[in-house]
Amino acid sequence: MDLQQRINAFAKLGQFIRQFSTKGLQNDPKVEANDLFFDGFKHQIKLAKEHNGWFTEANVLFSLESWANALTEAKLNQWVQPYNFKDLEPKTVGIIMAGNIPLVGFHDFLSVLISGHQVLVKQSSNDKHLLPFLAKYLEIVEPGFKGKISFTEDKLEHFDAVIATGSDNTARYFEYYFKNKPSIIRKNRNSIAILTGKESPEQLEALSDDIFRYYGLGCRNVSKLFVPKDYNFDAFFNAVYKWHPIIHENKYANNYDYNKAVYLMSEFDMLENGFLMIKEDENYASPIATVFYEFYNSEDEIKQKIKTDSEKIQCVVANGFTANEVAFGYTQKPELWDYADDVDTVDFLLKI
C-alpha cells in the first residue's frame, strides 16, 4: 500500500462511521460494504454500552461523530502533508490503550497504520468492542491492511516500539518494562479553563460541554477552573444548567452522592447546584461530579503556573489568553494534528 491507499481506506471508514451520530443512525446504501457491517456495528455499540455503564449510547455516538468529522480525505491529507513517509521500513508498534472514554486509543491506532507500520493492540477491558470491528471494516475496504492489524489480551511480545497510556502508577511500570524500546508513555493529565469574569453566557455554556462530556472521564475534560479573586460563580452555574439531566444517570448520581457526603463529613467548603460541586483545591484531577477551582491574582502568575505544571495539563481552555489554548466547547473535538501531551506521534513513528 502507498500513503494514498491508506488515506483512502480511512476516509472510507469515516464515511461508514458517519452513519452513527448523535442525530441518529441512518443506513446509507452508498457506503462501501455497508450490507456486511452496518447491523453488526449497531450490535457492537449495544455491547459496549452493556459492558461499560459509562459508555452510554450518547457518549459512544458523540465519539463516533467526532471521528467521522476527522476522517475525511481533506483532513487526512492536511494532517499528513508535513511528513515524509518515503523509505519507511515497516515495524510492529504495540499500543496499550486506556479505556476511560470510547475509542480513546483510536488516534494512536490510526497514526501507526497511516505511517505504514503494523499495529499490535492491547485494549482496555473497558473498551474492547468497537475498535476490532472497525479494524475488520478497514481490512475489507483495503485488503492491504490484512496481516497488519492484530489484537492481544496477553502480554505484549514481538514488537519494535510501543505507545502506552495509563495512570501515573502504571506509567512507572511501562517506563521500566519498555526501557529498551522506543516508546511514548502517557501519564495522567487533566484540562483546565482560565476564566476572567468577562465570558459570555454562550462561552460558559460551551465550557459545560468540556466539563460534562463523557462524565468528565477524559484527559481533555476540564476538571479545574482558574478564576480571578472575588469571582462570582452565579453566571457559571446558570450556564452549566443545561447538563442537569445527568444527575438522573445512576453511575453519575452515585458518584455525586458519595463525593458530596465525603466533603460534608470532612467539612470542606464547596458550592453545589444539585448535580455539580465546585471546591477550592490546588489539585488538577477532580472526582466525578466535582470541578476544582483556584484563584489567581494576575495573568503573569497563572501563565507561570501553567508553564511549571505543563506535564500535568492536557488542554488550556481560554479566550485570548495563551497561544495554544482551546476554544470553549472544543476540548472533545480535537483535530488529527492535536496530539496528546503535545508529543507528535507520527514524527515518533517515522523515526523508529
TrEMBL record:
Domain of life per record: Bacteria
SUPFAM superfamilies, per database record: ALDH-like
Keywords: NADP
InterPro entries for the chain: Ald_DH/histidinol_DH, CoA_reduct_LuxC
Name assigned to this protein: Acyl-CoA reductase
Organism of provenance: Winogradskyella aquimaris
Classification lineage: Bacteria, Pseudomonadati, Bacteroidota, Flavobacteriia, Flavobacteriales
